[in-house]
């Protein structure tokens, strides 16, 4: 949002729903007296509620600039508060926000090609509009999404002490149903939907999805970690992204914008590396090994601990008594790699170009996921050897104020 900008402009061609070339040479002059050539003018759909017209496509412009004066000329209202800004249409419907908690974006990814170690096939991704702080939740059935959204919205309403105004999603059946409708009505929330087959209208979470999947795929391949640990990789990617990516124009990470302090990154380790967990048994033989060989799988959700796959026991433990060898890849026979673990193999079916907008069916994965018929939220975890706060159950992407102490 730029109050000194005379018109909307961007340097990214992909944002335009329509673009017309300009008939005359036109240049934009910037504050440092530099110039950018206007390559065309067109329309950009930021959401189902907000479409910008007369947007200039400027060569080599590295930022997306929304002009306050042009918004006012187009009939929108722009409200500024201390540290916040929101855009409303003529009916005072919220269409853009820069205030914490007013708008949540959400989407699902999946099905995965293989089930996670706890039998999950789908990922629910939720993103704060203002800070871009994100959460991930893992599901066996798509209709579990409502429970996760409900719990998060209620918690955030208590946390920020301000009224949440809207949630935004695609038209998938997991979002467009009577449970969501009743929930939003009871809380006074507006449920905004993107147009069918138009992912850019839900672009905030769609772009976040791509980042998380690309990070997870890279982490899995780096240390040859089997694909059945994709949920751990996505969870770790979300944990890291919240702490290292800077929010455009604000110069702060999503974590800092949410909690008001800079995150510590000194405890971060290479996903999939070999690690060694200290044995806690009371009676050990004098010559018995004092550690367990394991693979690092991320960070605990409710304690200051690391998640480690113990190779001998074939189970996940959470502990702070662990040493890492980040140079050593996983090359042990305990991890048998399959064709799904080959380099370049997508984690999810829709990575290869399918439109994931809740309107098109995905092709079947290697092992068919469960149908969308009934919810499994009350079912017992099919992999009880995992801790109850496994990332397949909750997201460790956030933490309390003392998160980094003791690490």
TrEMBL record:
Ranges where the Integrase catalytic domain occurs: 96-262
Signal sequence: where?
A: none
* Low complexity composition-biased segments: 357-366
Which residue ranges does the record annotate as region Disordered? 332-407
Keyword Cell membrane part of the UniProt annotation: no
Report keywords, A-Z.
Hydrolase, Protease
Q: Give the protein name, as stated in the record.
A: Integrase catalytic domain-containing protein
Source organism per UniProt: Paspalum notatum var. saurae
| Organismal lineage | Eukaryota, Viridiplantae, Streptophyta, Embryophyta, Tracheophyta
């Amino acid at each position: 949002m730029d109050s000194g900008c005379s018109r909307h402009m961007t340097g990214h061609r992909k944002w335009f729903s329509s673009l017309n070339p300009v008939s005359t040479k036109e240049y934009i002059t910037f504050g440092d007296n530099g110039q950018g050539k206007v390559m065309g003018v067109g329309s950009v759909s930021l959401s189902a509620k907000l479409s910008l017209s007369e947007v200039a496509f400027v060569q080599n412009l590295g930022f997306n600039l929304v002009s306050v004066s042009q918004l006012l000329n187009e009939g929108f209202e722009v409200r500024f508060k201390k540290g916040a800004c929101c855009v409303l249409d003529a009916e005072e419907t919220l269409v853009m926000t820069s205030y914490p908690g007013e708008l949540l974006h959400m989407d699902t990814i999946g099905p995965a090609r293989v089930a996670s170690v706890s039998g999950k096939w789908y990922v629910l991704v939720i993103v704060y509009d203002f800070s871009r702080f994100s959460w991930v939740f893992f599901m066996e059935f798509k209709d579990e999404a409502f429970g996760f959204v409900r719990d998060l919205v209620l918690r955030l309403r208590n946390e920020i002490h301000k009224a949440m105004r809207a949630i935004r999603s695609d038209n998938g059946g997991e979002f467009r149903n009577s449970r969501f409708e009743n929930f939003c009505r009871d809380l006074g929330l507006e449920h905004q939907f993107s147009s069918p087959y138009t992912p850019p209208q839900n672009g905030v979470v769609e772009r976040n999805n791509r980042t998380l999947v690309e990070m997870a795929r890279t982490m899995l391949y780096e240390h040859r970690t089997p694909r059945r640990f994709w949920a751990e990789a996505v969870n770790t990617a979300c944990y890291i992204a919240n702490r290292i990516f800077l929010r455009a124009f604000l110069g702060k990470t999503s974590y800092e914008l949410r909690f008001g302090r800079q995150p510590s990154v000194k405890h971060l380790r290479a996903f999939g590396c070999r690690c060694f967990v200290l044995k806690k048994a009371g009676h050990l033989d004098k010559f018995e090994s004092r550690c367990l060989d394991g693979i690092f799988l991320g960070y605990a959700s409710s304690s200051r601990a690391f998640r480690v796959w113990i190779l001998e026991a074939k189970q996940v433990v959470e502990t702070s008594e662990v040493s890492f060898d980040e140079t050593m890849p996983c090359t042990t026979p305990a991890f048998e790699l399959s064709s799904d673990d080959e380099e370049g193999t997508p984690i999810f079916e829709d990575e290869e170009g399918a439109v994931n907008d809740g309107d098109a069916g995905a092709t079947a994965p290697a092992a068919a996921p469960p149908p969308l018929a009934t919810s499994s939220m009350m079912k017992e975890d099919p992999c009880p050897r995992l801790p109850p706060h496994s990332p397949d159950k909750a997201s460790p992407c956030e933490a309390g104020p003392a998160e980094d102490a003791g690490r």
